[in-house]
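Reopening this ticket.

The earlier resolution said the output was attached, but the attachment link was broken on my side. Pasting everything inline this time so it's all in one place.
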Amino acid sequence: MAYGRRASVVFLARAAIALAILARGIVPLGAGELRTWTSADGRFTTQAELVEIKGDQVVLKQASGNAITVPISALSQTDRDFLTKPVPAKEAPKVEPPVAKGEPKAGTPAALIARVAAEDPPFAYEPVKEFSTAPQRRIDRIAVSRDETRVLTCCNDTAGTCFVWNLATGEKVSQLDRTGLLDRAALSKDGKIAVVTDRTKIEVFNALSGKLVRSDPMPDGAELKIEDLRISDDSQWYCAITHTRRVLRRGLTDGRTFASPPIAMRGDRGGPFTAIGPLARTILMDSGDPKPDLLFFRESPARMQSDPLPVAEKVFPTAAACSPNIWSIATDDLNYYFYINRGGKYQHFGPMDTRGSLIRQMVISSNEGIISLLGDANRVQIVDLFTNQNYFPLLPYPHLEKQIGPSGVSLFFAQGNKLCYWQAVLPKQGRAIWVHAVTTLFADKQYALLDELADECLADPERFPFTESPKFDSLIDNLDSPISMKGLGPLEFGQRQKQANEWLAKNPKSVAARVLVARFHVAEGWDARGSGFADTVTREGAEKFQASITAARETLAPVMESDNPPARAYSLWFTIAKAESWDGARLAPYLARFFKRYPTYHKGHALIAERLLPRWGGDEGETGRYIQSVGDQVGGEQGDIVYARLVADVHRYYSRTGFFEESGLDYDRTLRGLAALARDEFSRNFAANYGLYFAGLKRDREQALRFADLFEDTRFGWLRRPWRSDYAYENTLRWLDDGS
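Inline output:
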């Protein structure tokens, strides 16, 4: 199920990715030959030349030579405008330029890897339209239609006016037939209906003419401040929430009215957040305790049914958003959570880190592919739910108040009476390209291409710029787990495991397929066993665990008996050895080969270090001696880096107080390795957190300040790891600030 993706998104996603996944954008653009075509919602682009227009469809020829047919309605307004110009079809086929010596041929796995490995472009908002709203003196309220074609600007004073504007041209559409103070304003999805409220009434206008259609008094003639207002996407209802926690829902065509009694507070820590669903049937409202009220409107009899949103953690929301299939909340512990409807049941995701920002506005895009968060200091985080990619765009005019638009990638703000409409086009960053490519090949069962891609990854030991893992690891990671928070299409765990087995059956010699199938067996086994100690495991769970681990070992054995198993295979092999309690003699030959081939692959070393802990049968101090031997044998700065990473991996198995004394690990060498690791931009945040954490344990103020200074960009300043609680992190910062 696509969960809200519109037809245009699905079509262009398949046209631009599934049909030409390895070819899109890899060959250089020829001058005047190609242009960028964009989907109506702005999420997908492809480089292609116009061939011809066929009725309500257009034929495009991509750089690879593939011809695709796209509905004109699925294209952006800019592309539709372009099509109104007389553009003749090409009379002769385009001659592709010769491939430069040493450059991978377009459309091959090697070309994909080259593209993914390229540096990511900078990501920032860019102006789309800026225009004056004169004769308004200033802009106090902004309401944007869901399709972002029209905007309503309001000046909130006794002589204040409200104007509707065409966002594409900046031309005035109408002036609403009202003046004076107001609380809230809203536009319908298509921008044809406007609703404005003050303390005594709610007014409905024809946004195209500005004429008043209806004026609805507040219930019982009371004066009520409106905290939230929305027009349903089908333009059948408006829904308002008052400061007294009443829900007002009125029909725009039939005048049906529903006014709830005040929704009672369950706790005493209320905040001013609400979120109204796009059909005005679902509402999230602060309850005063950690679990927000989830309100459902029932048609017959007309009433609101209230249920607490199932939030496990005791945190207090600060902002919320609703869409047909997603609820999301941001909380005061600098995290956000969301719930996705899958088959009538809502699956919980979170906590997700907001990178130190207290969120005050959330938006879920109309295609449910993006959640955007606006935090304090006007910082924005854009979460792509299809790829799990997080973007932190640079903001214009950081001192001005901002408002995220309905698309999730647009930004609206005012400079006096000038309206500013900016947009961030999600860059085709390496990780997003890689995720789309790998997961689409797997979903389309292109196993031969995946094997070819795996061979290219194994032949190239360098990592991609967006990960610390080798390329082959990145390939397996993207197949091993559901990459998208919304699921890899229909490929949930069972289906992905079934396809991995199908891949292995078609090519028993496939290294990638064997590693992937073994990984699924291991995950299945640990899921059956659970994470508790042995005395907590049920008989059925133990039997399933043993059977799955045995299946993993038998699947992976041919790879381990080959001349050059990949590092990821060794990592899985050591996991199996740990699960089956291998003795040192059985493990030694594999460990020797592993160290000779992959001396700096810390993930494999970490598994051995864990296996040597007393809780798994190792001797006291054996883990520390192994970590030291690895660092010494690697030697130099790289040895210090591996040493520091292994210390970070095993620290959670020791008590926080006296960690270095208890483990026998070298504090100075650990910090030396973290300082060297911090020079790698991708690993800087990891190094800064662990450096500050370990220096805090030793109360080494000089070193703590050194690592705290590495938090030079507040958008990436803090990750939960390695802090075991908010208190531990805050306590370290307090000590750093005042020595307490």
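Reporter confirms the inline version is readable. The chain has a mean pLDDT of 80. The chain has 19 helices and 32 strands.
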